[in-house]
């Protein structure tokens, strides 16, 4: 048990570092956009390359985790992801930025899949829910990274210097915790380890749909909150970055409460309520007359979205007759396609109907995901959780 407890802290740090690296890039998107003189549409295309790199990598990452174990893949992918954040700061054009973000997306997905697989193994050995807290550490890292990014942007620190410093510090953190991770146990359950897209269980399709809609929404919020505040309200670089920080802080707080909330409400009602809270809060943010008034709305959106992805990813590992690895890989892979559709779709739509109305797409996604939440009834309960009503 002591070994598992140490591994728990190792996974916590990896999720934290992942969030810091992601937010280091996100918080400086407006500055990079301005430096390269990119329109919203062109920026959307460059962001698309990151999503494409991530989605193409997820199946390969799953294979590597199965063959070599999540500990080894975590170690290599985490260091590579920390290094990859330097690349966008070196871009000199939209094309080189797209190439840099493709590499960034590849290593982001590799680390994401591996650390989630390690987290599932730790949760299984502990015998109690903990995925929500892992994801909470990602959001805490995103809040920290966005806060640092906003502070550096306000003091005109160049993005390349910021990215390099973030890379070095976080690599040291990764090297400190990878010895704590544990090897994956071999299981012998009678389950399906390879799934055909033509024969997916209905519940897995529904979970993947929720994952797709929620990751589209999270991606859109991450990539466009700062841009929205700058364009709609002429907010300064610091305040624009703080918008994403407020979103991330609220998400982090409620992810730490997610295991308790799910125990009280059950997974279905937790997901459905979260979707409705996110939709209502984003409507507030988009209707707000000033940047400051919009911040509570973005924070509320973070609250609503907070627990959904941890529950959906975990749910993929609890589909009857499907191995946890195969289920999680399916939900993650199909869900992350939302990152392909989300940010560029918002960018293209904003060219036609303005960014304010384009972000209304996220509201519609949240409402649709609330309807799919009924699928959570079909999952087996996890330790410490009441069955869905």
The CATH homologous superfamily corresponds to MFS general substrate transporter like domains
Question: What's the CATH topology label?
Answer: Growth Hormone, Chain: A
The biggest beta sheet reads:
none
CATH architecture: Up-down Bundle
Ends distance: 33 Å
Classify the beta-strand content into a percent band. under 5%
Helix and strand run? HHHHHHHHHHHHHHHHH
Per DSSP, the total helix count is: 17
The number of distinct β-strands equals 0
Helix coverage percent of residues?
over 70%
Q: What is the CATH C-level name? A: Mainly Alpha
Structural class: mainly alpha
Q: Assign an overall shape.
A: globular
Task: Provide the residue-averaged pLDDT.
Answer: 85
Low-pLDDT runs: 188-193, 383-389
Give the SSE layout.
Elements: H1 2-26, H2 29-36, H3 40-68, H4 70-84, H5 86-89, H6 94-126, H7 131-154, H8 159-177, H9 202-233, H10 237-256, H11 258-265, H12 267-287, H13 291-305, H14 308-316, H15 324-335, H16 337-358, H17 360-372
Helix pairs in contact: 1-6, 1-7, 1-8, 3-4, 3-6, 3-15, 3-16, 4-6, 4-8, 7-10, 7-14, 9-10, 9-13, 9-14, 9-15, 9-16, 9-17, 10-13, 11-12, 12-13, 12-17, 14-15
Description of the structure:
The protein has 389 residues and is mainly α. The protein has one domain (2-179, 196-378): MFS general substrate transporter like domains (Growth Hormone, Chain: A, Up-down Bundle), CATH 1.20.1250. The protein has 17 helices and no strands. The chain has helices spanning 2-26, 29-36, 40-68, 70-84, 86-89, 94-126, 131-154, 159-177, 202-233, 237-256, 258-265, 267-287, 291-305, 308-316, 324-335, 337-358, 360-372. Helix 1 (2-26) packs parallel to helix 7. It is globular and about 50 Å long. The two termini are 33 Å apart. 61% of the residues are buried. Residues 188-193 and 383-389 have low confidence and may be disordered.
């Amino acid at each position: 048990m002591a070994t598992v407890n140490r591994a728990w802290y190792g996974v916590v740090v990896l999720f934290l570092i992942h969030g810091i690296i992601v937010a280091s890039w996100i918080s400086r998107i407006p500055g990079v956009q301005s430096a390269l003189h990119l329109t919203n549409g062109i920026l959307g295309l460059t962001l698309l390359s990151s999503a494409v790199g991530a989605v193409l990598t997820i199946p390969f990452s799953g294979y590597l985790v199965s063959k070599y174990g999540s500990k080894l893949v975590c170690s290599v992918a985490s260091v590579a992801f920390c290094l990859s954040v330097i690349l966008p700061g070196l871009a000199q054009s939209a094309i080189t930025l797209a190439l840099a973000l493709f590499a960034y997306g590849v290593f982001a997905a590799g680390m994401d899949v591996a650390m989630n697989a390690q987290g599932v193994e730790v949760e299984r050995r502990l015998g109690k829910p903990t995925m929500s807290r892992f994801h909470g550490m990602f959001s805490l890292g995103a809040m920290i990274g966005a806060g640092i990014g906003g502070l550096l942007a306000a003091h005109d620190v160049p993005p390349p210097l910021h990215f390099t410093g973030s890379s070095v510090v976080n690599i040291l953190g990764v090297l400190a915790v990878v010895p704590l991770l544990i090897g994956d146990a071999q299981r012998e359950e009678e389950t399906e380890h390879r799934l055909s897209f033509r024969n997916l269980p209905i519940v897995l399709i529904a979970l993947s749909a929720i994952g797709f809609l929620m990751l589209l929404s999270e991606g859109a919020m991450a990539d466009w909150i700062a841009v929205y505040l700058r364009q709609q309200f002429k907010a300064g670089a610091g305040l624009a970055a703080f918008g994403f920080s407020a979103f991330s802080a609220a998400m982090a707080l409620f992810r730490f409460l997610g295991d308790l909330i799910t125990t009280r409400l059950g997974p279905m009602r937790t997901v459905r309520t979260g979707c409705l809270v996110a939709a209502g809060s984003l409507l507030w943010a988009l209707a707000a007359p000033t940047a400051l008034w919009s911040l509570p709305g973005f924070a509320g959106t973070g609250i609503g979205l907070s627990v959904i992805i941890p529950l959906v990813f975990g749910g993929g590992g609890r589909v009857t007759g499907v191995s946890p690895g195969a289920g999680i890989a399916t939900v993650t892979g199909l869900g992350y396609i939302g990152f392909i559709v989300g940010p560029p779709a918002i960018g293209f739509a904003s060219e036609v109907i303005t960014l304010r109305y384009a972000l209304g797409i996220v509201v519609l996604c949240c409402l649709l995901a609330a309807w799919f939440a009924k699928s959570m009834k079909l999952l087996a309960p996890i330790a410490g959780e009441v069955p869905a009503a």
